[in-house]
Structures are given as structure tokens and as C-alpha cells.
Amino acid sequence: MTDPETQREADQLDGVPPPEASEHLIGHDDVVLRLRKQIEGGRLASGILLHGPRGIGKATLAFETIVELIAATGDEPAERVRAQVAAGSHPNVFVLRIPREDGRFKTEIRIGDVRHLIERLHQTRGRAGHRAVVIDAAEDCNKSAANALLKILEEPPAECHFFLISHQPGRLLPTIRSRCQSYAMRPLSETQLAEFAGSAGDATPTELGLASGNPRRLCELKALGDTGLIERVRQWLENPLDASDTLTLSISRDLADRQAVASEAFVRRLLLDWIADEARAAATSETGETKRLASASALWEKANRSFTETDIFNLDLSATYLTLFDAISAHMRLGAGILTAP
User: Fold this and answer.
1) Distance between CA 19 and CA 154 in Å, rounded?
2) What pLDDT shows up at residue 201?
3) Taking CA 275 as the corner, what is the angle to CA 268 and CA 193, rounded to the nearest 5 degrees?
């Protein structure tokens, strides 16, 4: 179990170390190589944006890069730097996350948090070598904090590098994105995820399939233990048009069960990812599937709005899922030419 007193991330999983303390990085070799070459050439950008799905290793890669950076520009061996970074004690490394006050995590990064970071960066350097800042995640900054962050990105201190972690880069200010060198990161391959699973205590084929290349999700699934309900939803999504009304009703009722809270939270992300994949496939289609893209975009908005309203107003979760499953089926009928777009 993760000790609440030493927990560093608001969404840190029990028994899973934070990114700075991860023992090794798996995958993302292309990004690692590009950043390493920049370090070796003394031309690493002052602003670096690592974006992609939550839980695929973006922050872990940032800290791995920082260890190499400080070892290359300072006077300490990489092993010593790594140990201090893992402990959160290296004076040249700064981490900005949602803060915890009075034993509870806040909901956002505020302007005071960014200002405190800037004050520390303007102080005398603690040790030889470049300095690095990790902001995880950048979209957690509220509007005022984001504007303060933009200012320091526009005029960064000498030999200081900002690593912005983003799960939803579209939520960032365009001016922040323009100040950073951007790297799109993707889920791991099946082989890479299996390698991670081996280091994390192995996993079943079902868990590996449901994780879809995402190490964090694999850890969540292992913690759940029983993935039967999630697997039923995945199978439903493989062909919604063939699913019976009885099966759809059964799944919706089971998701609303109080004993399925953790599984239901996972299913929400599973559905949203499925919709995002639909939109992405339509947007990149060579045939220009504008109707399918418009339908997927509307479905994305409907799903997010439905989940938000259900939580705020304590609506019937079973009815929410029935409505969403029906909307997904309608979207698939449109794609199959069975329906005409409104």
C-alpha cells in the first residue's frame, strides 16, 4: 500500500512508485534517442512537451532524460543523480504537481504554486549542472497558473529545461505549446507491455489485452483482480450491432452495482478511448469520412456530458450507460450505412 504521508501524486496507485522512482523505462526508444542526441550535442530545448495517453510512461521518460542531462552537465555519476531524483532531493530538479494541503490534494495547480517555483528558480543554483523542471500534468494548471507558466517559458533561466507532461495537449494554451518542442508518445507494443508485465509481477492475456499498451492500466487491472465485467464491455464494443438488448441491459445494470465502482471507472475510460479511436480513424481516413467524424465528435461530447451530469446530479448510472450504448450503436449503424446522419 502507498503511504498517504509520502504519496507524491494525487492519482498515484497503491504499491506503484511515482515516475521519478521507477526503476527503468520501457519503450519510446525514438523519443529517448532524439533527446539523448540533443543532450550530447548541448542543444536540448528549454521547453519540452511530452504528450500522449495517461499512464504510458511520459513522466518516467522525462525523469530518465533529466538524470542523463544532469550527469552530462554536472560533476556527479548518473547512479548518484538517479538516487537523489528518486528520493525527490536533488537540488537541481523541481517537480510541480497538484499540491497537497492539510493531508488532502487540491484539484488544480494554482498561480501561487507556479510563483513559488519561479522564486526557487531565481535562487542560486544548488549544484553543478543544468536544472530541470517537470510539470505533471501541465493541463492541471488553472488559467492564472498557465499564464504565469507561459511567462517563465518565454524567458527561461539559463541552462534550465522545462518538461511539460500532458495527457490532453488540446487543453493547453496554444502559446504554451508553441514555446515547447513537442513529442507525441504512443502506447507500448504488445511485446513491450509484456516486458513491463514481467517486471510488475506478470499478467493474464485478458489483462494485457484490456490494457491496450498502457502500463498504468495494467496496474489498475491487476489491482482489480476480477476483470470479467470489463471484458464483457470490451467484447460488446467489438461489435455493438450484434449485441442483444438483454446483454446490453445486463452490462448496464452490473456497471451501476455499488460493488463495481473500480471496474466502472475503468469502463468509462475504455468507452472514451473507443470513441476517440473512432474519431481518429475517421479524421485520418483517405476517403474523408466526414459523417463518421461528426458522429464520433458528437458521441464524445455526449459521453463526457453524461458522465459529468450523472456524477453531479446523482443520476441513474444504469440508465446513463443504456443511453450511451444506444448512441454507440446508432453511430455504428451510421458508419455501416444503415442510418442517415441527421
Assistant:
1) 27
2) 62
3) 70
Q: Which DSSP symbol is given to 125? A: P
Interatomic CA distance for residues 106 and 126, integer angstroms: 29
How far apart CA 163 and CA 173 sit, in angstroms, is: 16
Whether the CA torsion 44, 131, 63, 49 is positive or negative: it is negative
Chain centroid to Cα 162, Å, comes to 18
- Strand, coil or helix: 86: helix
Cell reading at 212: 491496450
Cβ burial of 200 (10 Å; 0-12, 13-18, 19+) is: middle
Q: How far apart are CA 116 and CA 93, in angstroms?
A: 14
Give the three cell numbers for residue 64.
530518465
- Structurally, at CATH architecture level, domain 19-184 sits in 3-Layer(aba) Sandwich (3.40)
Distance between CA atoms of residues 219 and 318, nearest Å: 27
Predicted TM-score (pTM) of the model is 0.88
Going from the C-alpha of 286 to that of each of 283, 289, 336, the distances in angstroms are 9, 8, 17
* Helical pair 228-238 and 245-255, crossing angle rounded to 10 deg: 140
Q: Which residues contact 48 (CB under 8 A, 6 or more apart)?
A: 35, 62, 161, 162, 163, 164, 180, 181, 183
pLDDT of residue 3: 57
- Strand positions, DSSP E, 66-159: 93-96, 100-101, 104-105, 131-136
Phi-psi sector, 130: left (phi>0), alpha (psi -120 to 50), beta: beta
- What's the pLDDT band for 24 if we cut at 50, 70, 90? confident
Q: What is the DSSP annotation of 251-317? A: HHHHHTSGGGHHHHHHHHHHHHHHHHHHHHHHHT-TT--HHHHHHHHHHHHHHHHHHHHHHHHT--H
